[in-house]
Amino acid sequence: EDQVTQSPEALRLQEGESSSLNCSYTVSGLRGLFWYRQDPGKGPEFLFTLYSAGEEKEKERLKATLTKKESFLHITAPKPEDSATYLCAPLPSGTYKYIFGTGTRLKVLA
Amino acid sequence: GAVVSQHPSWVICKSGTSVKIECRSLDFQATTMFWYRQFPKQSLMLMATSNEGSKATYEQGVEKDKFLINHASLTLSTLTVTSAHPEDSSFYICSARISGRESEKLFFGSGTQLSVL
Question: For A65-74, how does the pLDDT look when each residue is reduced to its tens digit (9 = 90+)?
Fold first, then answer.
């Protein structure tokens, strides 16, 4: 059975304090991975799709990387507006069923 | 970017009544839509995959007779919670998939908060 684990569950950072979020998974074949951001009471917002080990993508203060077993979302010099829950979902081969991880709740303090 | 519109944003109903939630893709055609359920501070739980013109595929443990899904057109999927009870209170979110070469994405609606009294 495919499994997705995100760590840490919650993270508090001071503004400007860089850190990384982890997404690890066991899936039967991996063709890619999603990263999403979700604000309270709203639907998730797309951040990245990564397709191959070694791939990196950046958007403002966020950079996502992918290996065969895990993905990292690096946040550089975060601001309070980066506070949100960050979700990942691996894309298993042969199916378009998306299973999301439990998320990391990020709080950036001014 | 692509937009998925979900209505209503919130609904309060009495126990035993049915509630319909609509999910529309506004500027693209979605052959496949997904319905998720989310409890406070928890992740998205996939309920079912909705395919245009065919029956939905439900995840294990999801009652298909309670959560009726209809995907009658390429831009509209609906979720009907039948005979709702307080334990059905939750945040329901739909999404639609767009895929192309190196551009697979899910676009989500804004969610529906259901409260059953």
Answer: 998 889 999 9
